[in-house]
């Protein structure tokens, strides 16, 4: 049986411009969450829940970490939550990142902006399984950069900013030629970035995580579909995704 | 003991609460949250004659106390629904309503005939009010003579009781209700969504790919209540009420306005357990306001 | 410098924000909160030919992100408004619009003539859409030929520019808009309230004494935006937009949809300073979304 | 100039069943509030503000006290406010209770249920001006009784409950014959009670405080009118009232 769970806010802090890290207490969720999955959060006064990726899960402390950017009213509201407050959550929802430790020896993580968070939890799990991790992160500008050092713990990490105010100047795609060999790439970020990456890395095997506006968040309403070449002609991002094999869906 | 049961043409409901069409898929996803057997019945996502892919995304937007949707009737088509979905729902032994949507009268009739021949469907909800498809749908819902025509032909083609789902996007809802009653409808289902739009300030264009979408949720409840209240005074057939229901108090408000049963749509997205939770507290709410059964409350908001 | 000015027939507005009719009385009360000179203009409470006492109470109810009202056009009548209220507003040197409501075409014409002879009124807002009076009002707003007729006769009787205020309670808003444009309307004002109802569970009857009331507030914004967007594609005359405006972002959404100016209603009750506050931040909001003037944003939500 | 002010919640406590006492900090309001006036409170998530009478005001501590019954969502929400939180208020609004110390030597206060609060502040002010105070309070039942001892400090105070679970059994009107002489009565409570009182005390001079659903709360929208025999044919409760002379309006 699926469940709606209550998670207790443990901490909220701004880790970069308009970017917040929130730690949530719930042992069951912390135990079952897989990298790539998301939480579907209810925010009072809002009709629709908000999907936010799981950025980390720690079964030991029974906590789950999420990172979000305050782009609208719902996330602004979330950023003002205080520790001890309750969050009504559906999740962990969606599938996780694909990983065959047999074939993947070195993984390339490519994150853009607020698409970076799920890759952190993924990187941690990959390293746990002995897989090498190279990271390429892209941000708008210096103020938005976060988690760089934490990715460096996994292995080499490149950072680019659109305006060159930090790291390489340019897009993540400009760096891809420098990263050396990898067996599989994992990417999450704006759709334009994913289009550029899947086209540039056409010959590589990869997984991408997608976003779409959601209604139910559990597969019932058909709000979050994306065209695909499977029998039905579409996939649902909330339940078939948010992670897809590159090429599985039409971006 | 508070009696929650309601008897409608073709439908013996143990309680008046059903999920609304399009907000519950074909039940599979919500069956992972609770046992669907608790529901008064279930109304399936719209069925069209053939497989439909629906509109481009974004398909939903949030509004104050509501949402817009423009799914565009995505569904696998009536055959696959009968083959793959109805048997799943039939296991729960609750009345099943099939929501029927077409672009032409012929398509409506063909779908109705097909459901008529299937085993487990108990009634049809004739969706003449879907605002989110380019052709068909909405014209049937705003033109009384077209509504009458499609209702008559569907009635002639099927033995199943027919509940016609009315659009609120009309100048005169009573005229529409009377037209379909005269055409032989067994009941009414109201209201569908109100046509709305949200503009994306950054992209300088409508947020939804379909431009317009249907407004649902708590925001529209006063309009639903008004329309049901008006229609109740002019038709004899029963009304399935919907539009913004979130609580058992809301259900009672619909009953008082004149609905015999209700459907819950958007609220499922906020709280997947909303239907069973409403069913659980409904007896207390009825009792609190002096009713010993659902039947006793129907239409009681109309002064003598 | 962001240019907030808008020029409409008969109205040179320094900014596009006005209080909506009926939500601001005749300005006296709000003048105790701020200097009305800041406003783009002001739309007065409806005037009828004679003094009207309006409906019984309760006259308002709260709904999710909105409210219902059934004031019933209470007002002292056109003569007293001209004698006692217009001079007060005229002191502030801002355009004054008179909202005109009648039960018959003759009453509309008589009121329009009277305002025409008065000094300080700059334009008429023809309220053919008030849902809260038993006779008159709403029929003019749902029947295109009646709307055309009253618009023509008022135009003939008065030199003041006429903005016809449309009702959203119609199947086809474009048809109504075209009808009044053809009849010579100088502009449109949209939308008025949607007819709604709330039932008092304890008393088992409609909460409002008038039974139904007009739904306003944020809840209706998506409907207002949709209607303005549709109408903008079919008429050439300017649109005054309203329905659920609370913030400067909302104002921009109305401009993008096709409104040339806006009115703020219900939000005044929540925050008496809402109009000057919106006017203050509007330049920043325009700039943020890449516009250097209000004029530049009008209709820009329509893709090429 | 009228103003919208921010008041800081100092304390909230339940003083009787479903009945809460809230103390609000705002020096200016505490200095200007007159008995009979009300605050028009904004409650997040609600379109309309809530009118609540001023039950006490203390210029020294700069606080205003309100008492409210949780009859619906707005007042329930209010009851959950914590000290330190901010309340957006229009007020003090409306007129106050009429009192001519020249003619009024003894005043009778008659309160029903949640109509009792404004009479407390009134009683305090009357006593301050040397006016004698007799009180008659009516409540549904014992659990709802509040402020009895505080009224007793002003003088004789009678309490009735509908079900007889406390004090006299019956309605406030049943007690009126026992109270002895008074020069003016002041009453606030349910409309049915006010009708009974004004009819029973037809020959006395009195003031009554009325309730009606409000829109603007400041006199602009005509939501809160009550028929009257003045020139216009009506009075507005929010600005002409909430206090009227008995007989001034048609109940
Ligand atoms: C699977 C998935 C994982 C995500 N993970 C993260 C994350 O880890 N951190 C993060 O900051 N953001 C994440 N997002 C995006 C996040 O959901 C939106 O930024 C957020 O919903 C915006 O809400 P709001 O109230 O601030 O904005 P508003 O614009 O006020 O939201 C209005 C409506 O649009 C929806 N919406 C707006 N933007 C998006 C979007 N990009 N994707 C989906 N729905 C949207 C909202 O959910 C809401 O229903 C994720 C989205 C998806 C689909
Ligand atoms: C001048 C005045 C003074 C008042 N003083 C007090 C007081 O000191 N203590 C107290 O507990 N109550 C008082 N009331 C009543 C109080 O305003 C309502 O109980 C309260 O507004 C109910 O809000 P709600 O959200 O709990 O109820 P809901 O039923 O959810 O409210 C819905 C809407 O109806 C309005 N409403 C409901 N009941 C009333 C009512 N009786 N009078 C006016 N509007 C109403 C609300 O303001 C709101 O707009 C006073 C009313 C007025 C007019
Ligand atoms: C996402 C979504 C999809 C819907 N799909 C359908 C549909 O397929 N057929 C139909 O008749 N109504 C459909 N509706 C309308 C609902 O059944 C219901 O009439 C409406 O949403 C009002 O109820 P609510 O406010 O409780 O959601 C849909 C509504 C939503 C929100
Ligand atoms: C209390 C109230 C009274 C109103 N009175 C009038 C009126 O006299 N004439 C009129 O044309 N519209 C009247 N309206 C409608 C408003 O002018 C406006 O069109 C509508 O409320 C939508 O805007 P809003 O959502 O910003 O309130 C009234 C609205 C309210 C809430
Ligand atoms: S959000 Fe409903 S199907 Fe994905
Ligand atoms: S509430 Fe608006 S006039 Fe009294």
Give the helices and strands, then pairings.
The complex is a heterotetramer, with 2 copies of chain A (251 residues) and 2 copies of chain B (304 residues).
Chain A: E1 4-16, E2 19-25, H1 27-32, E3 38-42, E4 50-53, E5 56-58, E6 63-69, H2 73-79, E7 86-93, E8 106-112, H3 117-128, E9 132-139, H4 148-152, E10 157-161, E11 168-169, E12 184-188, H5 191-200, E13 206-209, E14 225-227, E15 234-236, E16 243-245
Parallel strand pairs in A: 8-9, 8-12, 9-10, 10-11, 12-13
Antiparallel strand pairs in A: 1-2, 1-7, 2-6, 3-4, 3-7, 5-6, 13-16, 14-15
Chain B: E1 6-8, E2 11-13, E3 17-19, E4 42-43, E5 60-63, E6 66-69, H1 78-90, E7 96-100, H2 105-117, E8 123-127, H3 138-142, H4 144-157, E9 162-165, H5 173-182, E10 187-190, E11 194-197, E12 199-200, E13 205-206, E14 212-216, H6 221-232, E15 239-242, H7 248-257, E16 261-264, H8 267-270, H9 274-288, H10 294-297
Parallel strand pairs in B: 3-16, 4-7, 7-8, 8-9, 9-10, 10-15, 15-16
Antiparallel strand pairs in B: 1-2, 5-6, 6-14, 11-14, 12-13
Helix pairs in contact in B: 2-4, 4-5, 6-7, 7-9
């Amino acid at each position: 049986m699926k469940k709606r769970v209550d998670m207790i806010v443990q901490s909220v802090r701004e880790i970069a411009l308009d970017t917040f890290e929130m730690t949530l207490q719930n042992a069951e969720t912390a135990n079952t969450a897989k990298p790539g999955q998301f939480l579907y959060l209810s925010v009072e006064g809002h009709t629709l829940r908000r999907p936010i990726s799981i950025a980390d899960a720690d079964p030991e402390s029974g906590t789950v970490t999420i990172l979000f950017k305050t782009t609208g009213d719902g996330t602004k509201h979330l950023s003002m939550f205080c520790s001890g407050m309750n969050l009504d959550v559906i999740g962990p929802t969606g599938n996780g990142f694909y990983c065959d430790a047999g074939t993947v020896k070195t993984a390339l993580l490519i994150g853009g902006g607020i698409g970076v968070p799920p890759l952190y939890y993924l990187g941690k799990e990959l390293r746990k399984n002995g897989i090498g991790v190279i990271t390429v992160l892209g941000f708008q500008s210096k103020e938005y950069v976060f988690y760089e050092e934490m990715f460096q713990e996994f292995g080499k990490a490149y950072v680019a900013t659109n305006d060159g105010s930090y790291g390489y100047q340019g897009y993540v795609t400009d760096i891809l030629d420098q990263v050396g060999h990898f067996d599989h790439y994992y990417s999450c970020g704006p759709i334009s970035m994913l289009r550029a990456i899947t086209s540039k890395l056409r010959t590589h095997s990869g997984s991408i995580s997608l976003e779409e506006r959601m209604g139910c968040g559990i597969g019932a309403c058909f709000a979050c579909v994306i065209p695909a070449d499977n029998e039905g002609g579409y996939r649902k991002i909330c339940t078939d995704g948010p992670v897809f094999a590159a090429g599985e869906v039409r971006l | 003991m508070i009696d929650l049961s309601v008897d409608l043409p073709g439908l013996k409901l143990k309680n008046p609460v059903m999920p609304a069409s399009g907000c519950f898929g074909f039940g599979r996803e919500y069956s992972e949250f609770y046992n669907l057997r608790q529901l008064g019945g279930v109304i399936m996502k719209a069925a069209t004659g053939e497989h439909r892919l629906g509109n481009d995304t974004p398909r939903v937007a949030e509004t104050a106390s509501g949402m817009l949707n423009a799914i565009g009737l995505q569904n696998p088509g009536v055959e696959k629904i009968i083959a793959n979905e109805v048997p799943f729902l039939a296991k729960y032994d609750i009345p099943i309503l099939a929501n029927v949507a077409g672009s032409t009268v012929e398509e409506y009739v063909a779908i109705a005939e097909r459901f008529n021949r299937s085993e487990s469907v108990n009634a049809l909800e004739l969706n003449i009010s879907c605002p989110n498809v380019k052709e068909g749908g909405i014209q049937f819902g705003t033109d009384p003579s077209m509504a009458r025509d499609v209702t008559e032909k569907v009635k002639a083609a099927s033995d199943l009781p027919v509940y016609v789902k009315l659009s609120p996007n009309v100048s005169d809802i009573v005229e529409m209700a009377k037209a379909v009653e005269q055409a032989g409808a067994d009941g009414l289902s109201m209201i569908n969504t109100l046509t709305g739009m949200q503009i994306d300030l950054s992209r300088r264009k409508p947020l939804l790919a379909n431009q317009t979408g249907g407004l649902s949720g708590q925001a529209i409840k006063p309009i639903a209540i008004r329309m049901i209240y008006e229609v109740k005074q002019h038709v004899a057939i029963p009304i399935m009420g919907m539009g913004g229901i979130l609580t058992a108090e809301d259900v009672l408000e619909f009953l008082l306005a004149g609905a015999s049963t209700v459907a819950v749509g958007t609220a499922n997205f906020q709280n997947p357990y909303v239907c069973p939770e409403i069913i659980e507290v409904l007896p207390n709410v009825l009792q609190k306001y002096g009713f010993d059964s659902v039947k006793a409350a129907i239409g009681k908001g109309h002064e003598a």
